[in-house]
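Case study 2.
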Amino acid sequence: MNTFLSSAFSGVSVTFLKPIFNRKRGLYLKRHNYIELDTLCSAILCGLVSISACGDCVPPFIAVFIGAIAGFIYLCALWFINAYGLDDVI
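Prediction:
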């Protein structure tokens, strides 16, 4: 249950926060306001990884916060990789 909640809220947080990140970078145009499937899948995977160590120890409402924070950290890491031109090995 906690793994599902964490992954779901990680995807939801990325869905709602990515337009805000794009607006900060000056990319607030209609063509940039769509949900990218690769970003959503990576955020869900990030939520699963973030809850994997403590999935049986935390209550469900903490799993929701862990997933939301994992989505935010994923967006920050994505911005960092794009800003400095780092190459993703995958």
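The radius of gyration is 14 Å.
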